[in-house]
UniProtKB/TrEMBL annotation:
Keywords: Hydrolase, Magnesium, Metal-binding, NAD. One of its GO terms (biological process) is NADP+ catabolic process. This is NAD(+) diphosphatase. Belongs to the Nudix hydrolase family. NudC subfamily. One of its GO terms (molecular function) is metal ion binding. Its EC number is 3.6.1.22. It is an enzyme of class 3 (hydrolase). It comes from the Eukaryota. One of its GO terms (cellular component) is cytosol. PANTHER family: NAD-CAPPED RNA HYDROLASE NUDT12, NUDIX HYDROLASE, NUDC SUBFAMILY. InterPro entries: NAD-cap_RNA_hydrolase_NudC (IPR050241), NudC-like_C (IPR049734), Nudix_hydrolase (IPR020476), NUDIX_hydrolase-like_dom_sf (IPR015797), NUDIX_hydrolase_CS (IPR020084), NUDIX_hydrolase_dom (IPR000086), Znr_NADH_PPase (IPR015376). The lineage of its organism: Eukaryota, Viridiplantae, Streptophyta, Embryophyta, Tracheophyta.
Amino acid sequence: MPINLHTFAGNPLRSNSPNPSNPFPQTSLIETLKSRISDNTTNHSLSPNFKVLPLRNGKPLASSTMDGNSGLSWHLGWIGLGDLKGILVNCGGAQLRSEWFVYLGSSVVEDEVYWAIDVSVVNGLVPEFGSMKLCFVDLRTLMVATYWEDLKAMGNLAIAGYARALLEWHKKSRFCGHCGEKTVPKEAGRRKQCSSESCKQSIYPRLDPVVIMLVIDQENDRALLSRQLRFPRRMWSCLAGFIEPGESLEEAVRRETWEETGIEVGKVVYHSSQPWPVGPPSMPCQLMVGFVAYAKSLEINVDKEELEDAKWYSREDVRKALTFAEYKKAQTSSAKVEQMCKGVKKTHSSARNFNVKSGELAPMFVPGPYAIAHHLITSWAFPDKNINGVEYPSKQPCGFISNL
C-alpha cells in the first residue's frame, strides 16, 4: 500500500471550483443536468457523458466480476443518466429531480461527469438492479473486500465513501439550523442555503474530527492497546475519541488517553489522517487524525463505560499479532459481494476473516490495513516501515519481516 494512501483517501475524481475557465463549470453542469432530466430522449452520445452512482440507505450500487487471474473483484454500479430514467419508469414512474443529485467530480480525459443520487425512497429498485447483476452493498463490506494495493479499487472505494458522506449530510441538513426554514442545494450539491430571503444561511458538509493515538511506553518498549465491547473477539486497537470545542488536537489526545485509561501523556507526534465515512448516518464523515503519544505514567485505570479493557503489549507481541493474522483472507469478501448480487444475504461480519490461520484462532489481532489504527501499530512494530518521517525508537533489532 502506498505510504501516504489510506482507505477512503485518494479520490481520483477532481471537483471543479466555479471558475468559468474550467471545462466543466458547476453552474453549467447543473443546468445541463436539468435539461437532460426534462428531455424525453435517451441519447447516449451527448457530451459530456453523465454517469450516476445510486445509493440506497447509504449503500452504493455495486457488482462483482471475475478479472482474469486476479479472481473476483467488485466495481461501482455506474448508471447512465438516460438508463436511470428508464429504470425509474419501470419502477412505477418515479420522476428524477435535479436536487436529488450531488456532483462528485469530472474526468476531462474521458469526457465524463460523475454524480451520486439517493434512491432510498424509490420502491422496486432492488429487484430491478438485481436483474442487471447489481446490488446495494454496505460500505464496510466493500471496504474489507478492497485489496489495499489495488489503486483502482482504492479509488473506487474513496468515491463511494465520498458519495455516501455527501448524501447522508444532505439528508441531515434539510432544514436551516438558524431559522428552521427548508434548505436548497447550491453548487451542484456541494453547499446548501436557507430558502428564507431574510436568512440565506450557507451550510457546508459536516466533518467530525477524531483523534486516534498509539500510546507508547518508550522505556519498556511497549504499546497501549484497548478493546471495546463492540469489537470482534480478540481484536485490540488504538485509543480514539472526538475532539471537543476549544481544544487542540494534542490536547484531545492527552485528554482522551487520561479519561479512558488514566495514562498521562507527554509528547504527541502527528502520524497521518484518514477520512472515515462508515460511521453512523448522524456523523456522515469522520476524519481520523492519527498520532503517536508518549506515556509519562504507566499504571492503567480503565474507564469501563468507554472500554472493556486496555493493556500494555510488547513489540514482539504486536509483531506476532500482525504476522499471525492473514489479512489477505478478507479479500474473500469479494465473493460476498457476488453472493449479495445473486440475492444471498450476508451472514456474518467480514472482520472475522482476519483472525484465522490454518484453523487456529489467534490470541489477538489488530484492525486490518483498511484502518489507520493498523498503520499506527505497524509503524511502531516495524520501525523500518515508518512513514511521514516519524521515528519509533526500538530496543530490539528489526530482523522480523512482516508478511503484509
